[in-house]
């Protein structure tokens, strides 16, 4: 076929056909999904996923080199098809963002089409497959023959291909587990989302669980209506001696405030250290011509909360919400000398033997006295390849801006 005939064929297959092709890929995916019982795509794990990815890349390279003059291959690796597939991915991702992505959730038709699990569905898998083919073909044509002027294109598209391919194919190797830790005890056991026990290549010893809380708040509790009323105007202010707050029809004055206290032998609150005490506030006021006063406290697992009764209502002290919590743990990776102490926090992960460890939760009933700490462990062996893809994209963008600056 001559070059003019090839060009004529390419002109005939334009954006209209590309978007129809992309729509056909999505529809085919839905048909396969329904025919398969809406079970989605079972992605293979290592090493099969790596082998499949290598075979895909090799076939794309061979097709790009050996079928370079094929009108269909040229069209399949062209811009119109790429844009059509991007639009299809954007639409599927939109459904994945606005619809609940949980098994058994959503309307029946969304479950049948697996729109409640878009990113593991056949429409998404087929669209990603053809997009990788499109991206790969365009990359091969810029790589062979290599020209320095194509470096920006090569880095950007190769990075995009690597990040997308490794992110999708590596999903089956992603491990996300929960590690329950108890103070003074060591464990090397974790549990998956399906409650399956997993042996870790290291052990964690919980030295101490620490929590910082916001200031407690005075509130009025109506047991008849099960209603709690808080002065919203003072909700962001710290409790201080002499402050006045309005709760319902009550005006309450703070006489004394102990951030951390406990009752002595006579039953009077006395200040103590933070690890032993709870918040105590002495309040006073009048209601219907009658004065009231007394101590209110947040209470703890070891001490009942104190409150002041005003007719059929209760003045109480509501504990502050958690401000920050963390676990002091010792990580052992083998022998006793192979250990280190770290502080695990919510947004400050620690790395150990390919795992990322995050502070996840605690025993909420016990609050800052919790002896249980829940740690999340995440292992994604494909993540370095995804990061490499992102760095290649950034390098491609840097070259693009550098060229623009040089032209100016």
Automatic annotation (TrEMBL):
Protein's membrane topology: Multi-pass membrane protein
Keywords, ordered alphabetically: Cytochrome c-type biogenesis, Membrane, Transmembrane, Transmembrane helix
TM helices/strands, residue ranges: 20-42, 48-67, 74-99, 119-141, 153-172, 382-402
Residue span, ResB-like domain: 318-365
GO annotation, biological process: cytochrome complex assembly
Transmembrane is among the record's keywords: yes
GO cellular component: membrane
Pfam families the UniProt entry points to: ResB
UniProt cross-references to InterPro entries, sorted A to Z: Cyt_c_bgen_Ccs1/CcsB/ResB (IPR023494), ResB-like_domain (IPR007816)
Domain of life: Bacteria
Localization: Membrane
Protein name, as recorded: ResB-like domain-containing protein
């Amino acid at each position: 076929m001559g070059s003019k005939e090839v060009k004529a064929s390419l002109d005939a297959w334009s954006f209209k056909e590309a978007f129809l092709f992309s729509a056909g890929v999505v529809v085919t995916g839905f048909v396969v999904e329904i025919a398969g019982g809406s079970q989605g795509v079972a992605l293979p794990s290592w090493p099969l996923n790596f082998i499949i990815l290598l075979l895909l890349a090799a076939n794309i390279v061979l097709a790009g080199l050996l079928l370079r003059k094929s009108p269909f291959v040229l069209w399949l690796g062209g811009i119109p098809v790429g844009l059509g597939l991007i639009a299809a991915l954007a639409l599927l991702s939109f459904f994945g963002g606005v619809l609940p992505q949980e098994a058994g959730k959503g309307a029946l038709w969304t479950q049948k089409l697996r729109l409640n699990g878009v990113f593991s569905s056949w429409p998404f898998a087929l669209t990603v497959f053809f997009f990788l083919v499109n991206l790969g073909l365009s990359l091969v044509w810029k790589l062979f023959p290599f020209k320095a002027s194509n470096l920006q294109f090569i880095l950007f598209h190769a990075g995009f291909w690597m990040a997308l391919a490794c992110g999708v194919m590596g999903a089956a190797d992603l491990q996300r587990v929960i590690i329950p830790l108890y103070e003074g005890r060591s464990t090397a056991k974790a549990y998956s989302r399906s409650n399956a026990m997993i042996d870790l290549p290291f052990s964690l010893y919980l030295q101490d669980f620490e929590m910082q809380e916001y200031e407690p708040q005075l509130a009025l509790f109506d047991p008849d209506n099960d209603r709690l009323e808080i002065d919203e105007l003072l909700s962001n202010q710290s409790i201080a001696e002499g402050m006045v707050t309005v709760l319902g029809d009550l005006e309450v004055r703070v006489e004394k405030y102990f951030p951390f206290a406990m009752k002595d032998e006579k039953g009077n609150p006395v200040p103590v250290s933070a690890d032993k005490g709870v918040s105590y506030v002495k309040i006073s006021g009048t209601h219907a011509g009658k004065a009231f006063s007394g101590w209110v406290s947040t209470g703890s697992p070891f001490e009942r909360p104190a409150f002041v009764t005003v007719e059929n209502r209760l003045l109480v002290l509501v504990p502050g919400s958690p401000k920050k919590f963390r676990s002091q743990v010792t990580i052992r990776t083998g022998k006793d000398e192979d250990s280190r102490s770290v502080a695990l926090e919510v947004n400050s992960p620690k790395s150990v033997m390919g795992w990322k460890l995050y502070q996840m939760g605690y025993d909420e009933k016990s609050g800052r006295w919790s002896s249980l700490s829940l740690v999340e462990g995440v292992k994604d062996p494909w993540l370095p390849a995804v990061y490499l893809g992102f760095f290649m994209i950034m390098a491609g963008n840097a070259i693009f801006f550098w060229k623009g600056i040089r032209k100016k």
